[in-house]
Amino acid sequence: MPLPHLLDFPATGSDALGHLIIAEGGQLPFPVKRVYWTADVPTTKVAGNHAHHALEQLIVAVHGTIELLVETPDRQRHTFRLDQPTQGLYVPPLCWREIRFGPGAVLMCLASIEYDEADYIRDYGQFARLVSG
């Protein structure tokens, strides 16, 4: 199983005119079935707090700073800081995630499947039992 990892996306443009950031085709680790974004999360809130059975995600901080704690099925914890819209975090299935938003941060997520509540693991104890076998 792949580990969570950062992906860099090319940007074209200039400081004077702005930049276009491109994520397409072979750059992405999966075909995208859903896109959503999250904004206005209080900085005191820890968001996420779940894993997915099958869903793969690519998470981008399109504005501001987002910090993620990702626990993999082998119980290793990885911390990532997203603060550039030219970088995204790939999160494979069966990874627990906790997300902290900086002031004004906007998170965009590209997802491998459409929304399915049955795919969510919202209880950390259930996640721990599932990945421990």
Word description of this protein:
This protein is mainly beta. 7% of the residues lie in helices and 47% in strands. The protein is globular, with a radius of gyration of 15 Å. The two termini are 15 Å apart.
Short description:
This protein is mainly β and 133 residues long. The chain is built from one helix and twelve strands. The longest helix is centred in the last third of the chain and has 9 residues, at 124-132.
Can you lay out the helices and strands and say which pair or pack?
Elements: E1 5-8, E2 11-14, E3 18-21, E4 34-39, E5 46-52, E6 57-63, E7 66-71, E8 77-82, E9 87-91, E10 96-101, E11 106-111, E12 120-121, H1 124-132
Antiparallel strand pairs: 1-9, 2-3, 4-11, 5-10, 5-12, 6-9, 6-11, 7-8, 7-10
Shape, principal axes of CA atoms = globular
CATH names the topology as: Jelly Rolls
Number of helices: 1
User: Largest sheet, described in full?
Assistant: 5 strands, antiparallel
Second CATH tier, the architecture:
Sandwich
Question: What keyword list fits this structure?
Answer:
133 residues; mainly beta; Jelly Rolls; five-stranded antiparallel sheet; 12 strands; 7% helix; 47% strand; globular; QdtA_cupin_dom; isomerase; isomerase activity; RmlC-like_jellyroll; RmlC_Cupin_sf
